Amino acid sequence: MNEALLGSFISAMSTGLGAIPILFMRKVTHRLRDILLAYAAGIMTSASVYNLIPEALGQSNLFVLAVGILLGSMVLLVLEMKIPHVDLENPEKMPFKIEAKAFMIIAAITMHNLPEGLSVGVSYASGDAGLGNLIALSIGLQNAPEGFLVALFLVNQNIGRFKALGIATLTGAVEIITAMIGYTLSSLVEGLVPYGLAFAAGAMMFIVYKELIPESHGDGNARVATVSFLLGLITMIGLTELF
């Protein structure tokens, strides 16, 4: 429990750490944004394919793996349909007025962080401390650029820099709660761990394919984003070998 709590805390707070540069800069180019998103996509893909899925399959079978992955992706699909999509670069495209309903933006971002915290908690509950640390690290690396982009968006909406930093940090803090929920449920319910690992893999891959890759390829930076994706993939594989 203590390791899961510490890992989820570090992973969640990476959102705030990633947002710190907002105190010194106000704008970011499309190119840098796409590079960061693609790098995060590579990290999450590696964590799912080389860590979560093999662990789930090793503890169960193909049927359990398939059910978990499909369930994880379906839950994210429902969230995507029910929660308005937040375009951090083009607020004028929001389906609602920011001034009147700014809390909806924060709620949408926060809800998209829920499965990431769950991934960390379930990974620690698997009994493999190394897996838990790796998933916490991968989520943390993905949270850093996300925190920066969220804070940047808020600053561009005339919110104070320190306040934007605080809000961005809080959107990641929800992962601590869901990590503890995932850890507790997986520890108490026998046989739930492989389902949880596969669920986390499905949720993460949905985020990668539906959000990160399309957004990183939408501004004419597909080539550099592809290279960044591969570097993220290699980075996570290297960390797997080290740990």
From TrEMBL:
InterPro entries on file: ZIP
Keyword Cytoplasm: no
Pfam family membership, one: Zip
Predominant location: membrane
Domain of life: Bacteria
Segments passing through the bilayer: 6-24, 36-53, 59-78, 167-186, 192-209, 221-240
Membrane association type: Multi-pass membrane protein
Keyword entries, A-Z: Cell membrane, Membrane, Transmembrane, Transmembrane helix, Zinc
Ranges in coiled-coil conformation: none
Subcellular location: Cell membrane
Similarity comment text for this entry: Belongs to the ZIP transporter (TC 2.A.5) family.
The protein, known as: ZIP family zinc transporter
